[in-house]
Amino acid sequence: MPLPTVNLDDRRFDDIVAQARQLIPQYCPEWTDHNTSDPGIALLEIFAWMTDLLLFRVNQVPDKMFVQFLDMIGVQLDPPRAAVAPVTFYLAAAPSEPLMIPAATEVATIRTEVTEAIVFSTEADLTIYPPQLKAAFTGNALGEATSVAHDLDRLGVLGHKIAVFSPEPVPGDAFYLCLEHDHSAHVLSLMLVCEVAGGAGVDPKEPPFVWEVWQGSLNRWATCTVEYDGTLAFNISGEVILRVPVMAEEEFFNVSGYWIRCRITSEQNYAGYKVSPDIESLKVEARGGSVSARHAVVVKGEVLGRSDGNPGQQFTLLSSPVLHLDASDVIVSEQTGEPNHTWTPVPDFAESGPGDYHFQLDHLSGQVTFGPALLQPDGTVYRFGAVPDKGASLKIKRYLYGGGVIGNVPSRAINVMKASIPYVARVINHAPAVGGRNAQTLEDAMMRVPHALRTRTRAVTADDYEYLAAQVDGVARARCITPHLSSAAGEVSFPGQIRALDVQPGQVSMVVLPRIEVPEGRIAPDQLILSAELRASVQASLDERRMVGTTLEVRSPQYFWVSVSALIRVPLGSPRTLHAEVQRSAMAALYRYLNPHLGGANGAGWAFGRPLYLSELYSLLRGVPGGDFVEEVQVFLSDPAHPETREPVGTQLLLPPQGVIVSDLHTVQVE
Questions:
Q1: Is 261 helix (H, G, I), strand (E, B) or coil?
Q2: 481-523 tens-digit pLDDT
Q3: What one-character DSSP code corresponds to residue 407?
Q4: pLDDT score of 269
Q5: Among 7, 175, 310, 450, which residue's beta carbon has the most beta carbons within 10 A?
């Protein structure tokens, strides 16, 4: 049960009136009429009512005192978090030399009469390289050894043509291009001269191919975003504009470089090529690049003031709230004739000594505090951190301020450049900004204090590990696989001959689901990849808190890609518009329910290790408005890397403790 609330004074109105009546004979013995009609009793009740109000206020601890109490136990209100969005810079012309867009370049939304512009700053340098085509091949992605090398020197020669695919194109045929340099996050333009109607048999609005790049460390091909296809699927001369994801160097066909390919997909019921299209000329140009931008304004070289030489002195930054400080965000003290000192931020001064150049920052108020000096029991004064010399000028090298939910702007909202950059024509965000969060409220901090006190410095139980891992920025959910869970799964063979993790006593295996921008439909496989940076962040955070002798492993979940094929009947005579609406609603319900981030019965994400039952899909689809009944539902396990292979699932799909379900491509027919 919770601890009782402490009242500084628990007297109420009736208690005060009764106590005052008992004191009347002592102080005023001639007062004998104690009825409620007596004027003196009326005055006594008025004063008792006023005293009751005062006592109520005394028993209400002010919010400022709560903040001080939290500070005493080392708990501070979390500062706001900045939204992050990928922004794409487009060039006015193809560059002939590498073009760099420096970090901290500011872009913003449009300022209106009622809203201020929301400013974003790029987080890294973006260098756009002019591409150099190294080689071109035609081959088959399904593993056939036959391939055809194309002579790039003869491209553009009158009468010379090269076939993009095999003479009779089949799924898996691919056209490979090898580039000399890394063009990760670039916008590339492929300028093609094609034979008119050379790729007969295809629908230009739904081309039967995808553009992909090789990602070596991930051992997979990742899909490019096609912004524009002026060739109408290789049927006329034109331009293809691609937004390229991360690339990696690899050797194919005995040629090493960075690879792009156009691959014919194996999806059913598409209008495929009757013959291979031919191209007469090919040129690759760079048209821009993408980089991550944060909802923040960068301030550099702000002067705080001059030191008075006293311990515990404080300065206030001109702008707040301040976002998280990086290792390079330091304060420099300068004084004529003395060496400069660099001061680094620390969360508190508990481990700071007299020779440590540390400072503490209150992110919400922007207040900078240097180490205090405290009187010790033996009469000596101990300094928790060095003190800037008297007269020294203090300057912070850099900090960022901003953040909040206001930064979660939709796609295409960031389109203003705060300063002109040579050769850059425009900027746009093709994806919405996500991750913005307001500063923590006092009520929320008070609710989290018990958990913070219990797990703030150590991780012992599985709940401790999961809670602490979830506090790492970028983690959506985490699951701790214990020896108990591992042994409970036993020797059960799950689909794909996958087994539960073998966790021995003294070992901890953390399964981490990265936070992503959750789309309405299918999640791309590369979005669910646990990056090396996030893995290292979780590992470092838990290493500081795990018990001595415990080994820790951080890994990605085991994803089970599920495809659902369903047949829904609608009432006879229903209009065709109802058919389309029922199909859209059923597809949306499936993608939402079979989702690791917002799926499951409670909408909090598909639980780790939770089985999938065929009956719950029937129940889900029966709730689609407009449907009469669900006639058939089939579940398949698929592999995004090999979409042509699908394994049927029976009435239930068992998952290991580290497993989680993700939607692949669903098919819903409405009749």
A1: strand
A2: 877 666 555 566 666 556 666 667 888 888 898 888 776 777 8
A3: G
A4: 43
A5: 175
pTM of the shown model: 0.64
Q: What is the DSSP letter of 429?
A: -
Place of tokens 């370049």: 105
Long-range contacts of 33-41 (CB under 8 A, 24+ apart): none
Task: Assign 177 a pLDDT band (cuts: 50, 70, 90).
Answer: very high
Distance, CA of 206 to CA of 197 (rounded, Å): 16
Kindly give, in sequence order, each residue whose CB lies less than 8 Å from that of residue 464, ignoring residues fewer than 6 positions away: 454, 455, 458, 545
Report, as an integer, the average pLDDT of 235-258: 90
Residues across the chain: 671
Say how far residue 289 (Cα) sits from the centre of its chain.
21
DSSP code of 95?
Answer: -
Cβ atoms of 101 and 113 closer than 8 Å: no
CA 363 to chain centre: 22
The structural domains of the chain, with segments of one domain joined by +, span 13-60, 133-287, 296-402, 457-553, 559-670
The pLDDT tens digits of the residues spanning 366-414 come to 899 999 998 888 888 888 999 998 999 999 998 999 888 899 999 999 9
Using alpha carbons only, give the angle 531, 532, 534 rounded to the nearest 5 degrees: 65
SS3 category, 664? coil
Cis upstream peptide for 321 (omega within 30°)? yes
**Are the C-beta atoms of 418 and 121 separated by less than 8 Å?**
no
Instruction: Give per-residue pLDDT as tens, 456-478.
Output: 567 888 888 888 888 888 888 89
Question: CB of 484 within 8 A of CB of 503?
Answer: no
Helix (H) or strand (E) holding 258: strand 255-264
Nearest residue to 138 (alpha-carbon basis) of 243, 282, 268:
282
| Contact partners, residue 107, CB within 8 Å, separation at least 6 | 87, 119, 120, 121, 122, 293, 414, 415, 416, 417, 418, 427
* Domain covering 133-287, topology: Jelly Rolls (2.60.120)
Backbone angles phi, psi at 336, to 5 degrees: -60, 130
Count the helices and strands in the chain (H runs, E runs). 9, 38
The percent of residues in the chain predicted with pLDDT above 90, rounded, is 21
The upper half-sphere exposure of residue 602, i.e. CA atoms within 13 Å in the direction of its Cβ, equals 5
CA-derived radius of gyration, the chain:
33
How far apart, in whole angstroms, are the C-alpha atoms of residue 318 and residue 667? 56
